[in-house]
Specification:
The radius of gyration is 19 Å and the shape is globular. It is α+β, with helices and mostly antiparallel strands. The chain has helices at about 70-90, 140-155, 160-185, 230-235, 235-250, 275-290, 295-310, 315-325; strands at about 1-10, 15-25, 25-30, 30, 40, 50-55, 55, 60, 105-110, 115-120, 125-130, 195, 210, 250-255, 260. The chain folds into two domains: about 1-85 and about 100-140, Elastase, domain 1 (Roll); about 160-325, Neutral Protease Domain 2 (Neutral Protease, domain 2, Orthogonal Bundle), CATH 1.10.390. Helix 2 crosses helix 3. Strands 4, 5, 6, 9, 10 and 11 form a six-stranded mixed β-sheet that branches. Strands 7-3-2-1-8 form a five-stranded mixed β-sheet, covered by helices on one side. The protein binds asparagine, zinc ion and calcium ion. Calcium ion binds near residues 180, 191 and 194. Its cofactor is Zn(2+). This is Neutral metalloproteinase. Belongs to the peptidase M4 family.
Length: about 325
């Protein structure tokens, strides 16, 4: 076979994109030879096994409509490629395990399945097609969220319950958003919302909001004693909120046309240091400070240690990390 680097993907969410494929005789396969051999398979509504590798006589994948089985595959392959590129180019990590080996994606899982998930056992991501008005779960932020669960498993190993579970979920939302910003194509300008394109609620609202997590009706804006006993997708709130505040600061702000209004639990303003520094801090904390049992208090000390190494303990960045944690009620 030979690697082809100008395949066309007509995605559901990201418009027309360039993908990589491989060619074997007259057949093209959705295999990305430049990114660890990452592949996308069709489960064709099944719920087990690997499915069938997307392949065909032309190198055009999908037509943009979810009714074409290849369209969601193009999104999944694109999201995985962007996530690979983001970790490699921004954080110097090649592949989820840092060893250059790709994972794989499975699309069209089950019937009316409104979720997506990472599995450590298959080292793969799986996407449902949604139900009712909900669309395939293959937007970039969701793809990067799921793939980041693989990264977390292979680094800090944050246990998926209690406060560490909330931090695990927040890590996936944080990098889900930063990958979306990294994509920067005309369809994906980047925001601090999760799942705004998949219509998971049926009314066009996102799944989660990082500027003010409680906007979803369930997530918490700030830490409290006992937050470790709620669903990890809601106890993620304070860390998502921390990351937004650290990046953009408190109060009102418009980024890429999206308006945010981020409160602080201590009533004191936070001045943001920009997403480029905030993502460096969180990645360094995740990969060198956090452990399986890290809770909110130790996420604070771990992120401060990472910040001290990157920018010094007398830096404006260090002060901003202290202030952003205080603003979500995680104190000294
Ligand atoms: N999509 C969900 C998540 O990544 C699946 C789950 O609950 N594990 O968190
Ligand atoms: Zn998750
Ligand atoms: Ca988003």
């Amino acid at each position: 076979w030979q690697a082809i680097e100008n395949a066309t993907g007509n995605t559901v969410y990201s418009g027309t994109v360039t993908l990589n494929s491989t060619q074997s005789g007259s057949t093209y396969n959705l295999t990305d030879g430049a990114r660890g051999g990452h592949k996308t398979y069709n489960l064709n509504r099944g719920t087990s096994g690997t499915g069938t590798l997307f392949s065909g006589p032309d190198d055009v994948w999908g037509n943009g409509s979810p009714s074409n089985a290849e369209s969601a595959a193009a999104d999944a392959q694109y999201g995985a490629a962007l996530t690979w590129d983001y970790y490699k180019n921004v954080h110097g990590r090649t592949g989820i395990r840092g060893n250059g080996v790709g994972a794989y994606s499975r699309v069209h899982y089950g019937n009316n399945y409104v979720n997506a998930f990472w599995s450590d056992s298959c080292f793969c991501m799986t996407y449902g097609d949604g139900a009712g008005n909900a669309k395939p779960l293959t937007s970039i932020d969701v793809a990067a969220h799921e793939m980041t669960h693989g990264l977390t498993s292979n680094t800090a190993g944050l246990v998926y319950s209690g406060e560490s579970g909330g931090l695990n979920e927040a890590t996936s939302d944080i990098f889900g958003s930063t990958v979306e910003f990294y994509a920067a194509n005309s369809s994906d300008v980047g925001d601090y919302l999760i799942g705004e394109k998949i219509n998971i609620n049926g009314n066009g609202t996102p799944l989660r909001y990082m500027d003010k997590p409680s906007k979803d009706g369930s997530s918490k804006d700030a830490w409290y004693s006992g937050i470790g006993s709620i669903n990890v997708h809601y106890s993620s709130g304070p860390a998502n909120h921390f990351f937004y505040l650290l990046s953009e600061g408190s109060g009102t702000k418009t980024v890429n046309g999206v308006s945010y209004n981020s409160p602080t639990s201590d009533g004191l303003p936070v001045t943001g240091i920009g997403r480029a520094k905030a993502e460096k801090i969180w990645f360094r904390a995740l990969t060198t400070k956090f452990t399986s049992t890290t809770n909110y208090a130790s996420a604070r000390t771990g992120s401060l240690a990472a910040t001290g190494e990157l920018y010094g303990t007398s830096s404006a960045e260090y002060k901003a990390v202290q202030n952003a944690w205080a603003a979500v009620n995680v104190g000294a």
